[in-house]
Design goal:
The chain is an alpha+beta fold. Helix content is 33%, strand content 26%.
Length: 861
């Protein structure tokens, strides 16, 4: 045989080669062999043999050699093995090696060969054979050799499987035993030894009685015998015992299965054990945690459903008694209940408290905890050195010692802490016969008290916010019944009940120049103090825009921009920038509101409506059924990007106009459509006094549900009489100034307003002169008499008058200054065909006195 460089190895000891390793693998008792397929180990590793005669030729060829090399014995016997296996280039050196072997030296090497051809005629794969050549002698004393051949690939696969088997057995995190048929430990791994002490070899020969109590050992032994006899596996068998030398109770989960030899003979039982002591403890903890979680879930569902402090305290006790304790009480700081801004909090623990709730699952038990009995509703305090006072003082729970001979054996005093503020004290007690409170119970009690405390504090904050919002809301509404020229006004405002948050409903009546009136009703979507503040900002903005004398659609467009700015930190100041946001911008920080804005002209009895997503106005004409006006609904304020439309309606004398919010017609008991029809049906007799009509509507619609705020604004039309209006058209020429003075003087004298003649003539002269100088088209002069005297001068010019301060040397420029000095108010507004400049004078006999024209003229120079 020849040396093969880089692969062949020489050794004087056959145990150093692959055959030696295979021999080690075949050691008796190794688990590897017991798990091998049925048959001989030599079948598995493909071992073959042949012998070489003293002449260097094959003289014996085994059947396994035929199977391995695919060469029949008839052909192999007499062959030179070098010619059979060795590459032609290496044969010369192999000849020398063979001479050395036949001279008495052993050799181990790796030789390439070709496996037999496949059954379908395919060429066999190339393989490697490890050959162990052993010198021997014939009976005659001649030197010969015996060769053992092993398939290298199969051998290496077996070595890998063996290493993996050893690693799995030795490195397993589970305790592993191989138990023989005598129920004795044959082999143990490191994990098992780490639990029971010693080394794995120390456990050889031991039985289950060495590890388990007698009764448990008998049960396990019977199970082992059944597995050995039947071959049926056992999964998750729980075994309880003690670690030797320790009283600690341990629990294991054991899996058992029968192990067989390569020929199929049962040779023992595999024991795979997992220490589940911690798992069992965790399971008990988990069960307790589930019970506590169920209690907390119940607390979350039942505590805080009311915004009443005392009710919330009773809800806590309904949860804990008897599921957590036998007796319980809740005490809240007296200052908290009386509405003080700041509860005592972390004080010295001796502040006054009121017992607001008590519950008992034990008959005849007057109170929980220690001390003198305290009745529900009584005001008391805890002594400074008591455990309860200490709990309030430190905001930490305390165990209260039981009274000698008393019914209670364990009491927890738990401060009720919300947002780092102590609002009261809860006491939980268990009577004799119940399990005392432990650390887990203490933690649960703290959590329950904290949840109730947060709900109580929320109720306190809600009550404070509700009161503030209500005050703010009422302060922003018109005081009493507002007055308007040409309208009889009546209004009602009903806030929601104490259980609902204040809404953003509002209404307003705004007097405009020319004896016109703006009627407004709106509703900010949302509730609470922020909605009330937003309502106040919108109401203020409406008043400001109305006094600019803008058209209704223009007012709503400006309000829309303002509403889009309310959700930003800058409030209304951000309105313009917010209005420039894209239409698909996030509306989460935008306040939405609905609003209907109407302007009524008492001279023409015409009313112009614009709507921003609000409910339609209702009109009742004399002798006709009530109907909802067909006003385009528009988009709510704050959405942005959509124009608003106007509708002008002429209102007959005596007609009734109603504006309202959705709280009047919508509730959980009926849909909106039904509420609207009911409202329209309630307006049956518009001739009744307006106050009676309002009361009738509210009582008919049953508005006492308190689900939402209600605003109702009703106006009866009373147009300005024709004799109270003077209206003239003047040509655009200088002499029209004199004619205007004459018309004004004659009209005032007919109204018995002689004290106003001089002032009116002077101011009319100034306004008509300005219209001639700066305006366009013909000039219209109109005098209106109602609660005040209003003078209007109309022209077709679009340029608005601007008041300026004239210098001493200027000959003109003092006209508007004079108007401002002599009139109670003045201004200008745009009209569809130009502009109107107006001034207003109080009637004689009123509280406001008249300014002397001569003195006013002197003051300008």
């Amino acid at each position: 045989m020849s040396e093969i460089p880089a692969k062949a190895t020489e050794s004087e000891d056959p145990s150093d080669g692959a055959m030696g390793r295979a021999a080690e693998a075949a050691a008796p008792g190794d688990a590897m062999w017991q798990s091998s397929p049925p048959g001989s180990i030599y079948d598995y590793i493909k071992v073959a043999s042949f012998s070489i005669s003293p002449g260097g030729l094959v003289d014996q060829w085994s059947l396994r050699a035929e199977q391995l090399f695919g060469i029949p014995a008839a052909r192999a016997v007499g062959m030179d093995p070098i010619e059979a296996f060795i590459d032609p280039d290496l044969r010369e050196r192999s000849q020398r090696k063979m001479a050395e072997i036949l001279d008495g030296r052993e050799w181990t090497g790796v030789v390439p060969f070709r496996m037999p051809d496949t059954a379908d005629g395919g060429r066999g794969e190339e393989g490697l054979a490890e050959v162990y050549v052993m010198p021997t002698r014939t009976a005659e004393g001649d030197k010969a050799a015996v060769c053992i051949v092993v398939d290298v690939r199969t051998l290496r696969s077996m070595e890998t499987d063996l290493a993996a088997s050893q690693a799995i057995f030795g490195q397993s995190p589970f305790g592993f035993l191989l138990i023989d048929p005598d129920l004795r430990v044959r082999r143990a791994n490191e994990r098992f030894a780490s639990i029971f002490g010693g080394t794995p070899d120390d456990h050889r020969g031991k039985g289950v009685h060495d590890y388990l109590p007698r009764g448990e050992a008998e049960r396990v032994s019977a199970t082992l015998r059944r597995v050995l006899e039947s071959g049926q596996s056992i999964t998750d068998m729980h075994v309880t015992g003690h670690v030797p030398g320790s009283e600690e109770r341990r629990h294991w989960s054991v899996n058992l299965y029968r192990v067989h030899s390569g020929s199929g003979r049962p040779i023992g039982i595999a024991w795979l054990g997992t220490d589940i002591t911690a798992r069992r403890a965790a399971a008990r903890e988990a069960a307790a945690a589930r019970r506590n979680l169920a209690l907390l879930n119940e607390a979350g569902a039942r505590i805080g459903n009311s915004l009443d402090l005392e009710t919330t305290a009773r809800e806590l006790l309904d949860v804990v008694v008897p599921g957590f304790c036998d007796l319980a009480t809740v005490d809240l700081y007296q200052g908290l209940l009386t509405g003080d801004e700041t509860p005592p909090g972390l004080a010295d623990g001796s502040a006054e408290l009121r017992r607001v709730a008590f519950a008992s699952a034990v008959s005849g038990a007057p109170f929980a905890g220690s001390g003198e009995p305290v009745e529900v509703g009584a005001v008391h305090h805890f002594p400074f050195n008591s455990r309860c006072a200490d709990a309030l003082r430190t905001a930490r729970p305390q165990h209260v010692p039981p009274e000698d001979g008393g019914l209670v054996q364990s009491t927890l005093a738990v401060p009720m802490v919300a947002h780092d503020t102590v609002v009261g004290l809860a006491q939980f007690a268990r009577t004799k016969g119940s399990e005392p409170f432990g650390d887990r119970d203490r933690e649960l009690a703290v959590e329950l008290a904290a949840r109730a405390a947060v709900c109580i504090d929320n109720a306190r904050l809600y009550r404070r916010e509700h009161e503030r919002a209500l005050i703010l809301q009422r302060s922003l509404l018109p005081p009493g019944d507002p007055e308007a020229s040409g309208l009889d006004i009546a209004c009602r405002y009903l806030p929601g009940n104490a259980a609902t948050e204040v809404g953003g409903d509002w209404f307003d009546v705004i007097e405009l120049p020319g004896h016109r009136t703006a009627l407004v009703v709106g509703d900010v979507m949302g509730r609470g103090l922020r909605a009330a503040v937003a309502m106040g900002e919108l109401r203020t903005a409406v008043r400001t825009l109305a006094l600019l004398d803008l058209e209704p659609a223009e007012v709503l467009s400006a309000l829309d921009e303002i509403a889009r700015g309310l959700g930003t930190p800058g409030g209304v100041q951000q309105a313009t920038r917010t209005a420039r946001q894209p239409r698909d911008a996030d509306l989460s920080e935008v306040y939405l509101a609905t609003c209907v804005y109407a302007v009524y002209d008492s001279v023409t009895r015409r009313c112009t409506f614009a709507n921003a997503g609000h409910l339609p106005p209702v009109l009742v004409e004399p002798g006709e059924p009530a109907l909802m006006l067909d006003v385009p609904p528009g988009m709510p304020l704050g959405v942005g990007g959509e124009p608003f439309e106007e509708v002008e309606v002429e209102l007959p004398e005596g007609a009734l106009l109603a504006l309202y919010t959705d709280g009047l017609v919508e509730s959980r008991d009926h849909p909106l459509d039904e509420g609207l029809q009911a409202f329209v049906g309630a307006l049956t007799d518009p001739s009744r006094p307006l106050e009676d009509v309002c009361d009738h509507v509210l009582s008919t619609l049953d508005t006492h549900h308190g689900e939402d705020d209600i605003a109702l604004l009703m106006a009866r039309v009373q147009g300005l009489p024709a004799e109270s209006v003077g209206d003239w058209t003047l040509p655009r020429e200088p002499r029209s100034v004199g004619r205007a003075r004459e018309y004004a003087r004659g009209q005032l004298l007919s109204w018995d307003l002689e004290p106003l003649v001089d002032t009116t003539e002077l101011l009319v002269s100034e306004l008509v002169t300005n219209a001639l100088r700066y305006g366009e088209g013909e000039i219209r002069l109109r005098l209106l008499l109602d609660r005040t005297l209003v003078c209007e001068v109309w022209d077709s010019g679009l340029v608005q008058p601007r008041r300026r301060r004239a210098r001493d040397t200027d000959e003109g420029g003092r006209g508007l200054q004079l108007v401002g000095l002599l009139s109670a108010a003045w201004g200008s507004r745009r009209t569809p065909r130009g502009k109107t400049v107006w001034f207003e004078l109080p009637l004689p006999g009123g509280e406001a006195g008249l300014t002397d024209p001569a003195e006013a003229l002197l003051s300008l120079f």
